[in-house]
Write a structure and sequence with these properties.
- The chain contains 15 helices and 13 strands.
- Helix content is 37%, strand content 17%.
- With 407 residues, the chain is α/β, with parallel strands linked by helices.
- It has 3 domains: 126 residues, no CATH class; 214 residues, von Willebrand factor, type A domain (Rossmann fold, 3-Layer(aba) Sandwich), CATH 3.40.50.410; 38 residues, no CATH class.
- The radius of gyration is 27 Å and the shape is elongated.
Length: 407
């Protein structure tokens, strides 16, 4: 097959459409060029690249290759350089690097699968900025934060006063007042010939509730993911009962990785164990994965559960609503912290965020983790923690539910 380019002017910025597929041997030759430049492209990735181009069309080959052929952050500049050098001499004005790469690093390209609704009349795919519908996996390379920044954040997080609410346990503790402890009274009576003198009394023990952190580490959260992971490490360091999960397209338990005393080592171990760090976002699927595991359900039950995410999701919003609703039933309190919600003009228009809001006990805008610590302490006192949700109409609320408290 021969690839024909309609209207290729030679300018890499010009949008073009292909009438036939790019030759497979040219795609494989591109993979070979990447290998010579040090990008680890094996046979499996090369085949996946060819299949992705066949599915998405040659005009989207740049993003198909970025999604499939690059795994480390350092591979991106090499990929861009080889892409320019390889395709321009062949007259392939594929989606060029200059016109395809968005200005903000945490934006990705979305391919509209329904061009008939609002796209061009020629039936070509419509390309715009948004969230990727593809399951893009990414593995974190070097840390973005310098050693000095990590040390400064650790000191700040250690100074935070984190007080979790307590719960009554089945165990009793000796007390001068309280209910009669029948078992202890009988044991004491054995020393006095069976006479129950004096009566032993006890009170119920109280224990701090556990904390569950669900941290969004997808590409759209790349500006905040390392800071929130360091906050989780500072909590684990305090010997607080805490479980930490990172999620992008699926959930990964990183609590064992955060047990290291050195924060940079803990952060490096956590990022190495998460295969979808800086990848896509599927909140509903990630929560459903947690809830399908009985061990994770037992860890979630009765805890103070915090989700840190911008709410941008490419999955079904109904799945997000269903999963968050069950989390709300399992957890003692459910809090959602949205780092971008304090921006001017923000409104919870993302479908996943709108589906989750009715099931939250508190909605915390911004990235102030000190405020989050305050919220966790205050939510444990009193039963009425919900109030009218800011920015939502009463028609959007389900019957009998006032929405989350906004801080």
């Amino acid at each position: 097959m021969k690839a024909l380019v309609n209207g290729a002017s030679g300018d890499p910025h010009d949008p073009v459409s292909f009438t036939e597929s790019v030759l497979t041997d040219e795609l494989l030759g591109f993979c070979e060029q990447l290998r010579t430049e040090g990008v680890p492209v094996d046979a499996g990735r090369a085949r996946a690249f060819c299949e992705a181009v066949a599915e998405l069309g040659p005009e989207n080959s740049y993003w198909a290759g970025r999604a499939v052929l690059t795994a480390e952050r350092d591979d991106g500049p090499v990929y861009d350089r080889v892409f320019r050098r390889y395709w321009r001499p062949r007259g392939r004005a594929l989606a060029s690097v200059e016109s395809a790469v968005p200005a903000r690093e945490n934006n990705t390209l979305v391919v509209d699968e329904n061009p008939d609704d609002h796209g061009p009349p020629d039936g070509s795919l419509h390309v715009g900025l948004g969230m990727s519908r593809l399951e893009v996996l990414g593995r974190k390379g070097d840390l973005d934060l310098s050693p000095e920044a990590v040390a400064d954040l650790r000191r700040r997080y250690q100074r935070l006063a984190l007080t979790l609410p307590s719960r009554i346990t089945p165990r009793l503790r000796p007390s001068s007042t309280g209910v009669v402890d029948l078992a202890q009274t009988v044991r004491t009576a054995m020393r006095t010939g069976g006479e129950p003198v004096p009566l032993a009394r006890a009170r119920a023990r109280r224990r701090s509730r556990s904390l569950t952190l669900l941290l969004d580490v997808s590409r759209s959260m790349s500006q905040h993911s390392e800071q929130t992971a360091l906050f989780a490490h500072s909590v684990v360091e305090r010997r607080v009962r805490c479980e930490v999960y990172c999620f992008g397209t699926h959930a990964t338990r990183v609590t064992p990785a955060l047990l290291s005393r050195a924060p940079r080592d803990a952060l490096a171990d956590a990022t190495a164990s998460v295969t979808d760090w800086d990848g896509g976002t599927r909140i509903g699927e990630s929560v459903a994965q947690l809830l399908a595991d009985s061990r994770e359900v037992s860890r979630l039950r009765g805890s103070m559960c915090v989700i840190v995410s911008d709410g941008l999701d490419t999955g079904e919003p109904a799945l997000v609503g269903k999963g968050v609703a069950r989390l709300h039933r399992l957890a003692h309190r459910l809090v959602w912290m949205n780092p971008v919600a304090d921006e001017a003009g923000y409104a919870p228009t993302a479908r996943a965020m709108k589906a989750a809001l009715p099931h939250l006990d508190a909605f915390v805008p911004g990235a102030d983790l000190g405020l989050l610590a305050t919220v966790l302490g205050s939510l444990g006192h009193g039963s009425a923690v919900r109030s009218a949700k800011a920015g939502a109409s009463a028609a959007d609320e389900p019957a009998g539910h006032g929405g989350p408290r906004r801080w």
